[in-house]
Amino acid sequence: MPKILIAGGGSGGHVAPAIAAAESLSTLNFDCVLAHSNREIDSMMASQTPFNCITLPASPLSLKPSGFKDFCVGFRRTRKQVSKFIQDQSIDCVLATGGFVAAPSLCAAKSRSSNCSTVLLNLDNPPGKANRLAVRWADRILSTVQCNLKNASIIPPPLRQCVIAKKNTKKGYEHFGLDPHRMTLLVTGASQGASSLNKFIPALAKQYTTSFKGWQVLHIAGAGHSSAVTDYWSSIDIPCQVIGFEQNMGLAWAVADFAITRGGANTVAELAINAIPAVVLPYPYHRDDHQRTNALPLQ
Questions:
Q1: What is the pTM of this model?
Q2: Can you give the pLDDT at residue 12?
Q3: Residue 132 to residues 100, 147, 148: CA-CA distances in angstroms?
Q4: 211 CB contacts (<8 Å, ≥6 apart)?
Q5: CA 232/CA 223 separation, integer angstroms
């Protein structure tokens, strides 16, 4: 049975496609292991899968002196750990799905002591810093969007089974404590949340409460933000359930009649496959084409 190490982490947006890839490859009799960063969201998502996991000590790239030092130390330690894992476990291929664990993992795979095949999966245009670094160690490049990575093959976005809406919506309403007789607005900024959405939507609802008549809100605030967002909604006369994070997004999409979301690659793909009408807000600190082209393969 071929063995694949799937490395992706730093945010849920990198762990989710790693899990999706593992789910698909395991049906083809590949033995998959997930490698992720030591951030809490990575560990939370990976631990709720049936796959074996390893945690890597990589750090994000920073141009600040202290941050760059952490990056270099983390890169070296991760490369060493992955290289040993490849040898000990006879890994045949390393697939990187982005984030700051990607580059050192692919680098380890191409070292003289390892020398196994490598694949880089890109989700954004323009590619992020991590993927622009990691590409130099990739034998093959896959991308879910048209991008400037040379010789990239375009593929559909990989999606976890748990993000696909189920036909039985009763379970979703019960899971979130929602009223099945009301329309449901889903607000989400993905795994880390979006501070702008977390503040703006409650403020909008407070000013235009009558426009929300007959509606209820399911607000996924991001890990660590649910308490503050609950406070935002507490003085507003609109039924609202606030949660920090939901791994089984299929339940959320099943009850959503409309969504207001941040325009991350995974979220856009989930909206498309579940056919949810939505207002998608691009991340404000990237060029416009970064978020716009995330949706291209889904049209």
A1: 0.85
A2: 81
A3: 11, 11, 10
A4: none
A5: 16
